[in-house]
Amino acid sequence: MSRFSTWVGIAVAGALSLSLAGCSSTGGKRAEDARAAAAAQGRAAVDTPRWTFAMITHAGDGDTFWDIVRSGAEQAAVKDNVRFLYSHDDEAQQQAQLVDAAVDKKVDGIIVTLAKPDAMKASLARARAAGIPVVTVNSGSAESKEFGALTHIGQDETIAGEAVGEELNERGREKALCVLHEQGNVGHEQRCDGVEKTFDGTVVRLHVNGTSMPDVQSAIEARLQSDTAVDAVVTLGAPYADTAVKAREGAGSDAEIDTFDLNAKVAAGLKDGSLGFAVDQQPYLQGYEAVDLLWLYRYNADVLGGGRPVFTGPQIITEDDADALEDYTQRGTR
Fold first, then answer.
1. Are 304 and 152 in contact (CB under 8 A)?
2. How high is the mean pLDDT of the chain?
């Protein structure tokens, strides 16, 4: 594998000790069947009590990124003899209610995302009062410690944005369109902030309705048609990269399409040149390590990070890396 451009050192709790079963990242029945098969065939590597951990994310329906996070968590749960519960809702109040439900079930650990942290504060306070350890993942690194979590696992979104700005500079870009697909997601704003911080050119933000890909495509296409100076489009999630490619074609633009996050389509796009680069935060690792760290805490009172986040990225992925990563994206682990 070619050497990745790595901005942040990756801290992990241990080597992956379970062979990975292939699974689909489509979010449909095939993915569910693959998960069930993997869980049935897996064997616990420890004889600790069968604790129950709940993961509650802000994922929307059909977002393949969260299939990868969930896959990592499920693999670690099998190894650690953990009963794993997963739920999600992209509406902050509903996500908070799911956390409350997990507290009421008296689970042994909670993994949660903080895309909209203010809405989650009271629910995490309930978890803390009930003595339930919490690990935050993916979003909310700034609020994680304040809300009483053991640690946060993910990437620093501002640093990730800065990596994008530097990469755009190296590619000679002059005007970038930063496409925000989720209203109120603090991590998305931080990504665009980071791009602005290091990019020598101009950054324009475009808010789109991320729940409708046709709307996303038409919004990007219209902006590219009205502003021909835009020579780079940065999407903030892998599923939106392919839509941006279609928008570029519809607008007759030569803008480069770049994206945060990685999936099979992004790897293919890097390989065929329709995409310039991607920023990988290793979602499989986020799910896997979150379960592992909760297990370590329950078993041995271990905590990683020393009060600081445990980083899983960012890594800049280019055409040079696509071949090596394609197999991993196909099985749903990258």
1. no
2. 88
Q: Both tokens of residue 267?
A: 């790897």
* Residue indicated by tokens 């693959």: 34
Nearest Cα neighbor of 9 from 303, 302, 310, 264 is 310
Q: How many CB atoms lie within 10 A of CB 224?
A: 24
Q: What is the mean pLDDT of residues 31-45?
A: 57
Residue by residue, what is the 3-state secondary structure of the chain? CCCCEECCCCCCCCCCCCCCCCCCCCCCHHHHHHHHHHHHHCCCCCCCCCCEEEEEECCCCCCHHHHHHHHHHHHHHHHCCCEEEEEECCCHHHHHHHHHHHHHCCCCEEEECCCCHHHHHHHHHHHHHCCCCEEEECCCHHHHCCCCCCEEEECCHHHHHHHHHHHHHHCCCCEEEEEECCCCCHHHHHHHHHHHHHCCCEEEEEECCCCCHHHHHHHHHHHHHHCCCCCEEEECCHHHHHHHHHHHHHHCCCCEEEEECCCHHHHHHHHHCCCCCEEECCHHHHHHHHHHHHHHHHHHCCCCCCCCCEECCCEEECHHHHHHHHHHHHHCCC
Query: In this predicted model, which residue has the larger pLDDT, 54 or 9?
Result: 54
Place of tokens 């990596």: 163
Q: What is the pLDDT of residue 29?
A: 44
Give the Cα separation of 329 and 334 in Å (integer): 5
Contact 178, 236 (CB under 8 A): yes
CA distance 187 to 157: 6
